[in-house]
Amino acid sequence: MAMDSDYILFARIVAEGSLSAAGRALHLSPAMVSKRLSRLEERLGARLVHRTTRRLALTEAGRAFHADVTQILAAAEQAEARVAGLATVPRGPLRIAAPTSFGRMHVAPYLKSFLETYPEVAIDLELSDDFADLIGGRFDLAIRITGQIDPALEFHRLAANRRVLCASPSYLAEQDAPETLDDLARHRLLAASHQIPWRLESASGEQLLLPFATPLRTNSSEVVRELALSGYGIALRSTWDVGVELRLGRLLRVLPDWQGASDVAVYAVHPRAALMPANVQAMVRHLRSVYAPVPPWG
Q1: How many C-beta atoms surround the C-beta of residue 118 within 10 A?
Q2: Contact (Cβ atoms closer than 8 angstroms) between residue 50 and residue 37
């Protein structure tokens, strides 16, 4: 297949009307222009140009090829313009993965304003408590609540993620509230399967891992939340998830000197690239404006 540079050279020869003029325009010697034109004709198996001392004339094959080349170069220019536009103007598909509860509570409510600002962006939002495979799932962006970021991904910290131990008043009325971490051994501890063991941190900075067996196995963080609200046990929940319930007294803090490890935060992550697409940049800016300096759940 001929290279684009040979197509450009042939189109310039026709436009300038001579090999020497085309060479001057492309900063090539007449000998090099002639050599490359001959190489192109040999590759195509057809003579494109009648060479005379006074003028240049296209053969029938040359006229047909020039018409095709003109269309090819125009299409390539348009394609480059479209790609360049994607890098500067938010438009086109934007595939996002987010945790189920967080996505429902703290991403979905703010999509309307984003889409009204960027009407040419088409969002595909997938909610799951599993970490999405960004490359395999063809995601442009993911929201992750974690303390560890895959080094193959670019990340943007959006907000802190404070997690507290809590239980319903009815549970604490039936059971003696724990006074030490050792007391947790006699309580029902609730967590999704991917959230065990708990990583806890004291007010003084002491950190520990607390493994335990939960009385009900689930992959859903929302199920754990509902179990805690129903009075079934003690859970370690993010304040973005249960802040309203804590303020209203539907849940109460347990062991307030301990909370989840402070290195866990809310991040926007995406595959590393030399140039971040404009729609991804726009969404990261939008979420930062929503969550900073104080997030809605703060």
Answers
A1: 19
A2: no
Find where tokens 């994607």 sit: 86
Element (DSSP H or E) covering residue 270: strand 265-271
Distance CA 78, CA 218 (A): 51
Identify the CATH number of the domain in which residue 190 sits: 3.40.190.290
Q: What is the pTM of this model?
A: 0.70
Q: Where are the alpha helices (DSSP H) in 89-197?
A: 100-102, 111-117, 169-174
- Whether the CB-CB separation of 211 and 196 falls below 8 Å is answered with yes
Cβ 145 vs Cβ 161: under 8 Å: yes
Helix H or strand E encompassing 286: helix 278-291
Q: Per 3-state DSSP, what percentage of the chain is helix, strand, and coil (rounded to 5)?
A: 45, 20, 35
| Structure confidence by residue, pLDDT tens digits, 196-231 | 999 999 999 999 999 999 999 998 999 999 999 999
CATH number assigned to the domain comprising residue 27: 1.10.10.10
Q: Note the pLDDT tens digit of each residue in 121-174.
A: 999 999 998 887 887 788 999 999 998 888 878 999 999 999 999 999 999 999
What domain range is 207 assigned to? Answer: 163-260
Compute the distance between CA of residue 156 and CA of residue 290 in angstroms, rounded to an integer: 14
